[in-house]
Amino acid sequence: MGTKSDKIILYTSQSPIVIKNLLEQKVCHVKREYIVKKYQEVSSIFLEAYNWYIDKAQNIVRKPEQAEYPFWTHNKIDYAGWYPGNYLLSLEVPVEECVFFRAEDWNKILNLKYLAADEKDEKRHKDMLIKFNISIESDIVTKPFYLNLKAEVKRSWDNLFKYHESIKFGDMQEKNLQAGLWELRKEWIIDIKENNL
After folding, report:
1. Could you list the pLDDT tens digit for every one of the 197 residues in the chain?
2. Concatenated DSSP letters for 109-166?
3. What is the pTM of this model?
4. Which helix or strand (DSSP H or E) is residue 71 part of?
5. Roughly how many angstroms between the first and final C-alpha of the chain, as a whole number?
6. Residues 127, 139 contacting (CB under 8 angstroms)
7. Greatest C-alpha distance within the chain
8. What single DSSP character describes residue 96?
9. Domain ranges in the chain?
10. What whole-number distance in Å separates Cα of residue 184 and Cα of residue 193?
């Protein structure tokens, strides 16, 4: 999994301004305005998921007061999303600073979908979608018609963290593991590469 005693190797792609702040201030936090600027007209959809995440994840790893939103990191370099003009950071992070989850589970939440606990739960949910004639699953969260179903979908998102402890203690090898970090620290940097393409 890329662990080294109580540390894990993680990768993240960050903008030049994040790198500048990190190197100058030795620690960097995400502000709400960065997310709004990055996602613009769809930022409200992302913020729905992000706000839920913050509410839950701060109970797993204490959130510093300066941190408004998390940084996303990956255990596989290929998933870090290294875009032209950005920098790829290789980090060695203490495990206790990480909130672990499977990337595919987080993607369901980002798409405002139900995150089933298991296959039986998944089938039950799909049958419910058919019963209520819901073809666009995210409508449950974005439209005002499905208050009870919306609450059920949001409760299902708690399944995001069901692997946290087993991953934290190295019991589980995940192909695409994500870790949320409340901050980036200069001392965690192993390598920085610029994408000049």
Report:
1. 444 458 999 999 998 999 999 999 999 998 777 666 666 666 677 788 889 999 999 999 999 999 999 999 998 888 888 788 889 999 999 999 999 999 899 999 999 999 999 999 999 999 999 999 999 999 999 898 999 999 999 999 999 998 887 776 665 555 678 999 999 999 999 999 987 65
2. HHTT----SSHHHHHHHHHHHHHTT-SSTTHHHHSTT-HHHHHHHHHHGGGGGTTHHH
3. 0.86
4. strand 71-74
5. 29
6. no
7. 56
8. G
9. 3-110+170-194
10. 16
CATH architecture assigned to 3-110+170-194: Alpha-Beta Barrel (3.20)
The number of residues in the chain equals: 197
What tokens does 185 get? 């620290």
The structure tokens listed for 34 are 């960065």
Given a contact cutoff of 8 angstroms between Cβ atoms, the answer to whether 61 and 98 are in contact is yes
HSE-up (13 A, CA, CB side) for residue 171: 7
The residue whose two tokens read 């662990």 is 3
Q: Which tokens belong to 98?
A: 């990480």
